[in-house]
Structure formats: structure tokens, C-alpha cells
Specification:
The protein is of the alpha/beta class and 350 residues long. Strands 5-6-7-3-8-9 form a six-stranded mixed beta sheet, with helices on both faces. It has a four-stranded antiparallel beta sheet with strand order 11-12-10-13, covered by helices on one side. A three-stranded antiparallel beta sheet has the order 2-1-4, covered by helices on one side. Helix 5 runs antiparallel to helix 6.
Length: 350
């Protein structure tokens, strides 16, 4: 479906500076600090400009301490910006936290919005009442979420007894229960098995197709590739890259590593290497395995396979793609200038 181009999130020169006491060690330092207070400042978010359109799925990534969580907390109204502006659907989040909270869903990684000592079912019903969700709508939404998250076995269990994966499933349900138009997801598939992870990715793609806006923070390349078309990379509080996911991957995630298991050790690894001059051929973990590293714009996987099959019967193939952390590290290292690729300005994907 076609989404409107109406901006849902607009941040202009958004800045957050934290102050912490700067005192000397020991009792003398503590006593002196009572009379001569000194503080050190740390800039967590530094003049960030960001626009997120309605119906967009945005990957917002960076290393620990880059300012991701601080940005999200300002978007949700938990933190007040030091300077700059932030509006979410026309609302200044920290000024109208209640109204903003009604329009968003949030999953904050290691933090839960479930009540720790009551069953999950009771937490969801409390959230239903807080958001004013009608019973028929609640039942319909819960049934849909149960089909994806397998909630039924979790409903009678208190939150403190849930494993990490179980709690993430329950927290996702809590965040989506009132069908918010904007959802912030911080590592939404952490601790989940592959089958549930795939279903959650498919579900998030589905709600994006229906018009829900998603801001996703994750280090899982699979999450980003399945859900998002645009990626924003932040480092040290500043935006390092804002553009199409496909473009940054094409520029800085070109290499693929193919691990091939043969029925018998290849007769000549040197001959195989000579047949693939544009690739790097090396022994694998055992004598029947070969690894081939290649640039996917110079060689296709099909070309590699057909060449290797001339040297023996092929039993198994596994292709490793560069993790998003690798791409992000290249951006941090200055190999991709802010907002640009090696070919020129990057156009943000809508």
C-alpha cells in the first residue's frame, strides 16, 4: 500500500546533555564537594535532525553509548531535551506525556512494562483499561497476537517467572495491545527461538504494511533487512549516516563467505583457487570443507557453486553475510562520510 508523506516524528537540533558530579576520591573529596560543587557534562545526543514519515520502518542503530536509547526516551517523553525541538504527531512528548503515551507502543529491551508480581493476563487487562480499549477489540487483538507470539501458556504466569524470550513475547503483546500508530522496538527478537523470531518479523512487516510506523533499534541484520528500508546510524550522539539500507549494504557489505562441504577433500585447492581468481579460497574447519570469500558484485553465488562442483560432489552450502555491526563499524571508522556514500548524497528511503 502507499503511505502518506506526512512527517510523524520531527526532531530539529535535538540535544541532550547529562551532568554528573565531578568530585575527587575519598572522604576529603566528598567533603570538599559539599562546599565546592563541580560537575562534568556528557553530550548524549548532539544536534540531531531527524524526520520519520507515517508508515515508515526505520532502523536506528549504533554502538552502546551512541545515544540511541536517549533519543528514544526523548521521543517517548521520558526525558526532556536540553535544547532543540522534538514533535511526535504534532505533540511535544515531554509536555503531554499522557496523550503521547496513548499513541505509541514501546518495547525497551531489558525493561518490562508488565507488573512483576501478577499474571501476564492481569497486566494485559490493566493496560486494556488504561488505554480504554473496548472488550471486543481487546479480544480480537489478543487473538491475533496469540497466533504470532503463542501467548496462551504465558497468560497465567507471573512476569517474574518468565524467561527472557517469554517476557519479550509478553512485552510485545503489551506494546501492541492498543494498536498504536507508532511503535518503538528495542531488540524485539532478543532471546527468541528462530521460529518465533521469524513470525515476529513477519508480523511487524504486516503492521508496517497496514500503516503503522516502526522505529527499530537492533544489532540483528535479519531484523533490519526483513523490516526496514531506511537506516540511521548514530555514533557519539551524532548522526553518521541516514539513507537507504540497500545503498549502505551495497557499498560496505559486499563480501560474502560461502562455506561448502564436499563428499571428499578436493584434489587440488590451488587449482580451485586458480579457477576463482576474483575470490579468496581457503580450507574450512575440516578437510572436506572449503571457504570461498567473494564480492557479490564481481561473482554470483551460482558462479562459485558451479566452479566448486567441478572439483567434487557438493553435500552442503552455507553463506555468511556481514553483520550490520561490520557495516556500522566502517561508518564509525570514517569510511562513509555523514549522509553520503562514495557515489554522492544518499537519498533517504520513504
Amino acid at each position: 500500500m502507499q503511505h502518506s508523506s506526512k512527517p510523524l516524528i520531527v526532531a530539529k537540533q535535538l540535544t541532550k546533555v547529562f551532568r554528573r558530579p565531578d568530585r575527587r576520591p575519598g572522604l576529603t573529596g566528598a567533603a570538599r564537594h559539599l562546599f565546592e560543587r563541580r560537575y562534568a557534562e556528557r553530550v548524549a545526543v548532539d544536534r540531531l535532525d531527524l524526520v520519520v514519515e507515517e508508515g515508515e520502518a526505520l532502523a536506528y542503530v549504533g554502538p552502546n553509548g551512541a545515544g540511541k536509547s536517549t533519543t528514544i526516551k526523548m521521543m517517548t517523553g521520558i526525558l526532556v531535551p536540553t535544547s532543540g525541538e522534538i514533535r511526535v504527531n504534532g505533540i511535544v512528548p515531554h509536555r503531554d506525556r499522557v496523550e503521547n503515551a496513548r499513541r505509541i507502543g514501546v518495547v525497551f529491551g531489558q525493561r518490562t512494562q508488565l507488573w512483576w508480581d501478577i499474571p501476564v493476563r492481569d497486566s494485559l487487562e490493566l493496560l486494556r483499561d488504561m488505554h480504554g480499549v473496548e472488550q471486543c477489540r481487546y479480544d480480537r487483538t489478543l487473538e491475533r497476537l496469540d497466533a504470532v507470539l503463542e501467548l496462551a501458556p504465558l497468560l497465567p504466569v507471573t512476569a517474574r517467572r518468565l524467561s527472557l524470550g517469554q517476557r519479550m513475547r509478553a512485552d510485545l503483546a503489551a506494546a501492541l495491545l492498543h494498536e498504536p500508530p507508532l511503535v518503538y522496538l528495542d531488540e524485539p527478537t532478543i532471546g527468541l527461538d528462530i521460529e518465533v523470531k521469524d513470525r515476529i518479523r513477519a508480523f511487524v512487516k504486516e503492521i508496517v504494511a497496514e500503516g503503522t510506523t516502526v522505529v527499530l533499534t537492533t544489532h540483528d541484520l535479519g531484523d533490519i533487512e526483513d523490516i526496514c528500508r531506511r537506516i540511521v546510524i548514530v555514533d557519539d550522539g551524532r548522526m553518521a549516516f541516514d539513507g537507504a539500507l540497500a545503498q549502505v549494504k551495497d557499498a560496505y557489505a559486499r563480501d560474502r563467505c560461502m562455506r561448502l562441504e564436499l563428499a571428499a577433500p578436493p584434489a587440488s585447492l590451488e587449482a580451485l583457487s586458480a579457477s576463482l581468481p576474483a575470490a579468496s579460497v581457503a580450507p574450512g574447519d575440516h578437510d572436506r570443507e572449503v571457504t570461498v570469500t567473494f564480492d557479490r558484485f564481481q561473482l554470483s553465488a551460482t558462479q562459485v557453486l558451479s566452479t566448486v562442483m567441478r572439483y567434487g560432489e557438493l553435500l552442503d552450502v552455507h553463506i555468511d553475510e556481514p553483520a550490520i555491526e561490520h557495516v556500522v563499524r566502517l561508518v564509525y571508522a570514517g569510511q562513509l562520510s555523514a549522509g553520503q556514500s562514495h557515489d554522492g548524497p544518499v537519498e533517504a528511503a520513504a
